[in-house]
């Protein structure tokens, strides 16, 4: 019943050519990025894509996700109906009637119900944006009530309404079986007759309305932010299979640009990410910097990359330099196509943004790449970091304390040097464990536990150096490279096979980053080792630790989200106290950062609320007597926050201190 197939063919060709040209213009820009291999482990990638893209796993993590799930799968199912519609527009004799009647009726029944679900989903999305939009739906460039959002929703609604009008008219004309189309049949019985036009005219008008809405949607899609409809599924397939607990190495040669200072310094996958962003705001909601009033908004970073690529693409294709800067110098705020330096330095590299992104965009690595450019190419970084970098280079620790002081934490303990073949575990004390007055107490507690369990352990003593975690996350890859090489050589030379560390940052760096330098050994966090010792009956906890009162446990980002160690600390605390610890409202993978990761430990917070105060306020709402942590940075940030907020008698303990207390007779 398609009037004038020739006219439809012309419009289809016009829409298809606009679609293809639009896709080519955008996807060809992705090729400007640096090469990167993302086609390994195809089976794993495919199963992950099914789970996250088609299964909408992360989308369903929010209440409104169910509505998006309905719209998404409605599109998938109705793609068959729309394909039949397009073919029928060119060849009117081609239709589902060529199929066996039972299959034809089953498909029509499915399309009819799914069209109703899609229409309901779109109407709910309209209402949400109009009457109860979430804060994450709005930013400097995304508005909940944006014309573009309403245009896309309107086109979908028109498609569904035209579908019902077309089939209801055909039922009224007797050309379709009403039993196969219950919704359309209901409309035909109640709404077609009162209309001022005949069913045949309604059928023709609805057909053309459906055609124009569908063809307009195709033509507009590559020009809009809804291009993620095309890129989200492949982006899930191409995502990094590893957790974001390391960074790619750099090659240091004369004449090379280091880090990312212009848009074509990113890899093609970084650029593809920018076209895949759905602008849902989940990253913004969970980001500790954005949530405390900092310049950083992960969504804005990705949007700026896309805008910068579109603005500079033509020039870069011809070999001309970009006209729009990727990074705005000084204290400038992030704008259209550029990210401000303040935003780049606000990141704590906690990885929360990446853990909630429904299409697996990799925000944090892009920020670190831009930091590398600022540090290594422009020497532009916060003033406090000058001292930090100099201390690491000169004395191998953040405070610039003499390396000879590394063993002062021993006190009266008999600490042995690690000996190859005689010592099982190297206790990698870490800078905080060796130099920070408060963290030294944790080191002593850990040493006490290892001795009580009969573990063979030793240290590197005065020759131990900083692992370089903050160097790498702050973008000083050159100094990190040197630090990592020296440390790897030392560990290999000493014959180290097993390492235990109390710091999640040392744990993650030694375990993950150093693999890039050929170091393959067993690295465990002290919570994991203590849990294993308790489970094996090697630790005799002589008493339940009862004087800690209501004990609240805080997850470290680099232990939990980056390395998936969640159970061990809780098992240790349960064994030591006889009860499971109290949980924060935001815990586990959704835990909120203490504010010290990503090198933020060595910088002052100049904008908004201090991140640690936000977390401590959340803790105080649980009315704890003790806050338990498993990280030196978290311990410092929690104690500082309690002082600032006058947290009264609330104590902060590392879990090693809790266990050591239970060892006392």
UniProtKB/TrEMBL annotation:
<dbReference type="InterPro" id="IPR036197">
    <property type="entry name" value="NarG-like_sf"/>
</dbReference>
<feature type="transmembrane region" description="Helical">
    <location>
        <begin position="178"/>
        <end position="197"/>
    </location>
</feature>
<keyword id="KW-0408">Iron</keyword>
<dbReference type="InterPro" id="IPR017896">
    <property type="entry name" value="4Fe4S_Fe-S-bd"/>
</dbReference>
<keyword id="KW-0479">Metal-binding</keyword>
<keyword id="KW-1133">Transmembrane helix</keyword>
<keyword id="KW-0411">Iron-sulfur</keyword>
<feature type="transmembrane region" description="Helical">
    <location>
        <begin position="147"/>
        <end position="166"/>
    </location>
</feature>
<feature type="domain" description="4Fe-4S ferredoxin-type">
    <location>
        <begin position="347"/>
        <end position="366"/>
    </location>
</feature>
<dbReference type="InterPro" id="IPR051460">
    <property type="entry name" value="HdrC_iron-sulfur_subunit"/>
</dbReference>
<dbReference type="InterPro" id="IPR017900">
    <property type="entry name" value="4Fe4S_Fe_S_CS"/>
</dbReference>
<keyword id="KW-0004">4Fe-4S</keyword>
<protein>
    <submittedName>
        <fullName>(Fe-S)-binding protein</fullName>
    </submittedName>
</protein>
<dbReference type="Pfam" id="PF02754">
    <property type="entry name" value="CCG"/>
</dbReference>
<dbReference type="InterPro" id="IPR004017">
    <property type="entry name" value="Cys_rich_dom"/>
</dbReference>
<feature type="transmembrane region" description="Helical">
    <location>
        <begin position="70"/>
        <end position="91"/>
    </location>
</feature>
<feature type="transmembrane region" description="Helical">
    <location>
        <begin position="103"/>
        <end position="127"/>
    </location>
</feature>
<dbReference type="Pfam" id="PF13237">
    <property type="entry name" value="Fer4_10"/>
</dbReference>
<dbReference type="InterPro" id="IPR009051">
    <property type="entry name" value="Helical_ferredxn"/>
</dbReference>
<keyword id="KW-0560">Oxidoreductase</keyword>
<keyword id="KW-0812">Transmembrane</keyword>
<feature type="domain" description="4Fe-4S ferredoxin-type">
    <location>
        <begin position="268"/>
        <end position="299"/>
    </location>
</feature>
<keyword id="KW-0472">Membrane</keyword>
């Amino acid at each position: 019943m398609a009037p004038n197939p020739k006219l439809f063919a012309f419009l289809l060709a016009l829409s298809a050519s606009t679609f293809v040209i639009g896709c080519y213009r955008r996807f060809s820009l992705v090729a400007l990025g640096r090469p990167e291999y993302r086609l390994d482990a195809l089976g794993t990638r495919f199963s992950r894509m099914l789970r996250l893209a088609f299964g909408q796993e992360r989308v369903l993590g929010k209440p409104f996700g169910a509505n998006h799930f309905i719209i998404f799968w409605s599109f998938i199912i109705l793609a068959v109906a729309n394909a039949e519609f397009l073919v029928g527009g060119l060849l009117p004799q081609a239709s589902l009637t060529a199929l066996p009647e039972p299959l034809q009726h089953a498909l029509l029944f499915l399309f009819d119900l799914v069209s109703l679900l899609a229409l309901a989903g779109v109407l709910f999305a309209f209402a949400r944006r109009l009457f109860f939009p979430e804060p994450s739906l709005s930013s400097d460039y995304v508005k909940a009530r944006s014309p573009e959002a309403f245009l896309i929703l309107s086109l979908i609604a028109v498609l569904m309404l035209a579908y019902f009008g077309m089939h209801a008219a055909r039922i009224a004309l007797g050309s379709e079986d009403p039993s196969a189309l219950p919704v359309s049949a209901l409309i035909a019985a109640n709404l077609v007759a009162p209309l001022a036009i005949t069913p045949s005219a309604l059928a023709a008008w609805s057909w053309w309305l459906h055609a124009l809405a569908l063809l307009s949607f195709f033509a507009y899609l590559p020009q809009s932010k809804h291009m993620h409809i095309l890129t989200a599924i492949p982006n899930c397939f191409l995502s990094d299979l590893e957790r974001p607990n390391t960074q790619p190495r750099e090659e240091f040669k004369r004449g090379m640009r280091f880090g990312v200072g212009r848009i074509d310094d990113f890899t093609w996958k970084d650029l593809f990410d920018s076209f895949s962003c759905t602008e849902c705001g989940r990253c913004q909601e969970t980001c500790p910097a954005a949530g405390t009033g900092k310049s950083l908004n992960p969504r804005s970073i990705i949007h700026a990359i896309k805008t910068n690529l579109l603005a500079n693409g033509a020039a870069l294709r011809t070999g001309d330099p970009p006209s729009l800067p990727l990074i705005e110098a000084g204290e400038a705020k992030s704008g259209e196509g550029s990210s401000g330096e303040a935003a780049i330095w606000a990141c704590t590299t906690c990885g929360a943004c990446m853990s909630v992104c429904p299409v697996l965009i990799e925000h944090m690595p892009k920020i670190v790449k831009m930091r590398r450019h600022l540090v290594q190419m422009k020497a532009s970084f916060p003033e406090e970091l000058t001292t930090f970098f100099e201390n690491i280079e000169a004395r191998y620790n953040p405070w610039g304390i003499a390396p000879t002081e590394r063993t002062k934490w021993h006190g009266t303990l008999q600490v042995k040097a690690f000996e190859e073949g005689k010592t099982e575990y190297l206790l990698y004390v870490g800078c905080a464990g060796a130099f920070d007055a408060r963290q030294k107490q944790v080191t002593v507690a850990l040493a006490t536990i290892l001795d009580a369990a009969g573990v063979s352990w030793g240290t590197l003593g005065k020759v131990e150096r900083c692992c370089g975690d903050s160097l790498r996350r702050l973008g000083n890859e050159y100094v990190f490279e040197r630090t990592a090489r020296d440390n790897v050589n030392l560990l290999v030379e000493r014959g180290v096979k097993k390492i235990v560390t109390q710091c999640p940052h040392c744990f993650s760096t030694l375990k993950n980053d150093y693999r890039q330098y050929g170091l393959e050994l067993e690295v465990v966090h002290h919570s994991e080792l203590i849990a294993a010792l308790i489970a094996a009956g090697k630790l005799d906890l002589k008493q339940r630790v009862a004087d800690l009162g209501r004990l609240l446990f805080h997850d470290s980002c680099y232990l939990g989200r980056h390395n998936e160690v969640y159970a061990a600390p809780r098992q240790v605390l349960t064994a030591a106290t006889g009860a499971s610890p109290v949980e924060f409202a935001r815990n586990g993978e959704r835990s909120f950062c203490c504010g010290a990761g990503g090198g933020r430990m060595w910088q002052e917070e100049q904008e908004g609320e201090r991140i640690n105060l936000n977390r401590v306020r959340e803790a105080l709402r649980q009315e704890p007597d003790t806050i338990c942590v498993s990280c030196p940075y978290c311990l410092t940030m929690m104690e500082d926050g309690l002082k600032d907020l006058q947290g009264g008698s609330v104590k902060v303990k590392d879990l090693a201190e809790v266990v050591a207390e239970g060892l006392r007779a």
